[in-house]
User: Fold this.
Amino acid sequence: MGDRTGDGVAQGTRGMAWLVRIRSQDTRAVIGSGVLLGGDTVLTCAHVLPDRTSPVVVEFPEIEGAAGSTATVADGCWFPRRGEDRADLALLRVHRPPPGGHSAPLLRAAMRDMRVEMCGYADSVRHARGAALAATVSLPFGERVQLNVAPEHLPRRGFSGGPVLDMQDPPGVLGITVTASAESGRLAPLTMAHMIPVETVLNYLPRLGGCVQGPPGVEPSVVRGGPPARLDEPDYAERLAAWLADRDGRPPVYVTEVRPGSGRDRTLRRALTLADRELSADAPAAGSTDPESTVPPVGSLDLAVDVRNEAPEKAAVRIAERMNLKGSDPARVLERLREVRTPLTVAVLGVDGCADPARLLELCGEFAERGCRLLLVFHRAGTRIDQRAEEDLVLRHRMGALAGRLEALDARLRDLARAGARLSGVDYPGPAVTRLHMDLAWLRHAHRTGADLDRRRLSGALEGLRRRTSRAERAVESAWEAAERGYGRRAELRGELRAYRRLAVRHGRIEDIALDREYRAAHEALHTGPFEAESAARAVAGYTGAVRRVLGWPPEAGGPEAGGPEAGERGPEGAREAEGGVR
Assistant:
């Protein structure tokens, strides 16, 4: 979204006429951001506003010539923060709307692992037209979603209420940024950000449904008639809640028989309703009066699709839509899905009533290999798949999970290879990871063909491969820790060399041949070939000691002339003072 700058900020907000800045009416300081909806309404976080009744000033920096306007909270649209991760939403009514009737494209989507951008305004950001900061969606449970951000991309004060965008062109608004913990006066630095997804917004503000694109996560036919008034089968509800929460070592595939209209059917609908962010408000009693162990986490379900009397490809199309794969041709949807991991939690209802159940189960195997956790619901007694077929789906999920871990290792190894070219002493466990890839490919072939391995041996071989993958991950992290130490030591020595070089220049010693020879040796040790910490430290110590000698200064305490072990690690106090604190 525009060219990146050195501080991790992108000037990428042009063309987003619906992006607004919110100022205090009293101080004119930037207090938040927001998105314009329907031309005259602004969605933002409640905590950026002074209170429920005080007016604020809304500005429209992306609309040429548009004047700012006062705005106040609309009736019934104030939901202050409850606890650490609930509510914090408000709708503002703009008293003098800008021309054009601009409205942000709110978008429902399953976002796990998705790359996104947070947009907003802040007094500390030098770009007058706003800034965009990169992030990756992380933990999905709860009304909010955690965003992983690099330290240089942490949102500034004033970003709360601003949009979180997908990486499409044009972008869709997946939710709004909330950084309340950083703006509430706490001293601890912000190390992560959060967003309030569109589904949570609709939970509190259903009136915005007309502004939202994308189908709901749970199809209306799945939860027909609304949530049940009572909990029919507590034991079954506990099993569903534990599986949706992915706790207690539950398998990634859950196969169940549910007769339509039964107590078990009502219990299933209750679980799916409570697990969906958009629908969870429809069953408040279940969340407050039923046993906690029967209540699945909000946001633990990404998709529920009913495939009765439908072609099996319907499930694939709905997964693609839920993953925000825009413009995917239904005839090519499987190819699109095979190109990406799909770590979604999906409930497929009416498996036995599908137009082609066998084809559907094969597609479910592909979904499992791409990372999907599957809740497969059969409606007729005796039609569920046998244990062998269920175990097969679990095996495919395990193989897919290992493939995902190896792909992540490959990405880390690419960065580690670059570090190894710059730093000596950095181990490169690439060959071990290559062997893991080869062994996984062989196990997948054995699974497809049945060659040489029975199911029990295949499961054991996968477990051994998982343990070896864990060891490889630890080896890569250890190598990265060594690389980071090397980069840090190199930066420290480079800073020391620069400080003494400036000191020599200031004292007119730039033409000293012997001094220049020492400097070139140190510079080469720090900038040419792989960096070796001990030899580079000796070279820098040689130069710093030579500078001190020609200036008539005593050897630095612990320096090479004094025989200390940490030669050249610190510049002289006098040099730091002379250089204005340069290190």
